[in-house]
Amino acid sequence: MAKRLDLKDVDIYYGDFHAVAGVNLSVAPRSVTSFIGPSGCGKSTVLRTLNRMHEEIPGARVEGEVLLDGEDIYNRSSDAVAVRKTIGMVFQRPNPFPTMSIRDNVVAGLKLSGVRDKKKLDEVCEASLRGANLWKEVSGRLDKPGGGLSGGQQQRLCIARAIAVAPDVLLMDEPCSALDPISTLAIEDLIADLKKEYTIVIVTHNMQQAARVSDQTAFFNLEATGKPGKLVEIDDTEKIFSNPTEQATEDYISGRFG
Amino acid sequence: MTERTTEQAPSRSSQDENSAAGSSTIDTVTEPDPARGRSHGSPIQGRGERIFRGLTSGSGLLVVAAVAAIGLFLLVQAVPSLLANNANFFTSPVFDTRDAANLNFGIRDLLVVTLLSSLFALAIAMPISLGIALFLTQYTPKRVSRPFAYIIDLLAAVPSIIYGLWGIAVLAPALLPIATWLSTNLGWFFLFAPGNLPVLTGTIFTGGVVLAVMILPIITAVTREVFSQTPRFHIEAAQALGATRWEVIRMAVLPYGRSGYIAGSMLGLGRALGETIAVLIVIRAATTPSGFSLFDGGYTFASLIASAASEFSQPLPTGAYIAAGLVLFVLTFVVNAIARVVAGGKVNG
Q1: Is the Cβ pair A98, B244 closer than 8 Å?
Q2: Distance from A99 to chain B by nearest Cα, in Å?
Q3: Counting CB atoms within 10 angstroms of each CB, which of A24, A215, A248, B105 has the fewest?
Q4: Is the ipTM of this complex over 0.90?
């Protein structure tokens, strides 16, 4: 649980298109790292290489190393399915399985791993829903479909589903961009809680959010359309937002472009 | 009307002032010019709107009227014959209309043969279609699946007379070993019990297989379409949990496409129930009543009516066939209704 993540000279390609070039960064266990940058700069692409979700796009490939506690998730002995079982992901749009009950949604990952013991499943279900700050709202209707919840609740349900398998790392791809401010606040509070147990990487378009939730911030940018995206700067969040090293970062966070 | 517009006018202008202070772009978008709206836009728009609404609701009503008219026609034509019928319409296995003064007709066997052949066809076609649809949408890249899908669609374009010829000339002999095996080894089960035909070719079994091939492309086309529309974010939800290809299908694709699959199958069943010429060619006529075996022969509603079509000269015997047609008509309605209930309100999750 809560492992360290290191990227070494990571290059990402879609067919012939060089999407992201030369990313080096490290994420400490039990910390929150946020990826910010203009649209198309490759921050979501980098996030998706961290659990090999990008492989679902035909022609996508990665060069370099993505190390989870020193072990390359791209080495031959591990396949994408196994990697995703230990690196959870929460998406931009809440995506509970609409016809599954709330309980089945939460334990879906465990069931995939072959856990059948009903008592164990119920325990994990409750613990995960409590962990996602959703237990009080749904404890009376665990058998109702997950599609019936509000957007903010659905997103917390997805977080519960992701943490139910006790992942090494939790990835979040703009988890609040489809939510109202109150639900967003609930998710941000939750991230602060989850940080105690999980390694979290979050992509966000909202710089205030990055400043509020993360310990370290990575700024991605691309020089021009068609050029690969690059990691411009990664540092403590406080430093990035007060006194960044690079001029491009300064320009971006002060709203001069992007 | 005029009073209201004059009342509104000042309030509008005050709104204009307010919004002009804020943003000029917003007020040009939200404020229609009231004068222009009255003099040109609204009457023309209103008339066009009325004409268009009339056309659309007219077309809609036409369909309902046509269906009702068909039902009514069948009923009106059938009633005199039903009243003159000397046999029980629902339980008699004979269909004898040679003597207009002494009609003896019942639909028992027609119903049995029709349902048995169609449901057998459905039982074969449903799993195969599901497999093809999953293969084309989940396991093959678009580049491969598209031409493949065209070929399957082509199956639907083959005229049914060709299926009939193929069924009796090629398929029936080819199925004979299987039919013989089923009959000798599973003969104790009513579906494979010895039938009312002297041979094992040209049975409901043969006809059902032909019908299965005929409805396969319909079910596949609908199912494939629905599966291919499974939202990406449902699929990603399963993938991100570490689901394998098959698990993604089970967790995301099947729940989403279930109702479409059922709807497609019912569409196929509808075609099988009404299929005429292929069935007429493939399934042999029998002289004794059907015993619910797949190795029976006989007529379906459609094939019986088609076989007698050349003799529709007297109104009373003709009415007997129309009565049979009416039952088929109702049967397809029932199938559709069941499909809707099964697919339920859960259309596409």
Answers
A1: no
A2: 6
A3: A24
A4: no
